[in-house]
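Progress report, Aim 2. The chain analyzed during this reporting quarter is listed below.
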Amino acid sequence: MKNYSVAIYGSSTRENFDKYSDKDILIVAEYYKELKSLKNEYENKGFSVSLYTYSKLKFMSENGSLFIDHLVKESQILIDYNENLDFILKNHKSKKPDLKQFQDNKNYFKILNLIPNSNKGFGWYCDCVYIGFRNYLILKSAKKENFNFSYLTLLEELKNEKLISDNELKILRELRVIKRNYREKVNDELPSKSYIFKVINILNKLELLKNSHLSNKAQFQAYVQTSIMNKELGHYQKMRLVEMYYHFDGKQNKEIERIICNPQFYASFFKKEKYIQNIIEKITFEKNVAQQPFGEIGV
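Predicted structure tokens for the chain:
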């Protein structure tokens, strides 16, 4: 295969890259089936891989995707046979985000009305908050035509607008560290309950998050069962809810672990209710099997 492109982007290209930064890499080809071997190769090197076809990236560019602005501003092309990726990026025209993009971002926070009352639940909650909050900051920056994508820079923009204090800035900077700890399973360095409510108070002030309260396992899993049928929730939101549903049961499943480790790749699978139900059934089945006395399995 000689028609593909590879580029690093985001944190990997910045001067403030550190151990909490993601190692993001983009791989583009004509068809998704051509990307599998490349995906495995770069994941084995520790990269977080994003896969796209050229036609998908071109469509995103034509529709003003901020992800393309991200690539234009913060990417370094490593391989670009036929220069297809370079052509897309050079011909991209930036657009300010519209009202719907802000509304969709605000709706994202609906999945955070319940706080799972567990150590891993606090980590999950902060990870989900970080994703939605960073996207909100990117939209705000793009609206002013700054098009910044560094979380730390975006927080400084917010402070310069006097929307957060110095102390609140320090609290919000910690979200980035917690996100990394959660994804790397550093479970002894996940947030406390008091930290969670400090973050909620700040996001409440910014009118992004409110009415959040602690929930136990039964309450949260019942909420997930209802939410996966909710047409107003997007597939990424449903995927994150199922992720926490899985964590609450504590029984390891390699397939579900793969989904959690690569949400960007699997998010589109969660457009289908049948797929979500199958994942829930796998979690529930394994939980029930684990609870059976010896000799009852398969009876």
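The radius of gyration is 20 Å. The chain has a mean pLDDT of 85. These observations will guide the mutagenesis work planned for the next reporting period.
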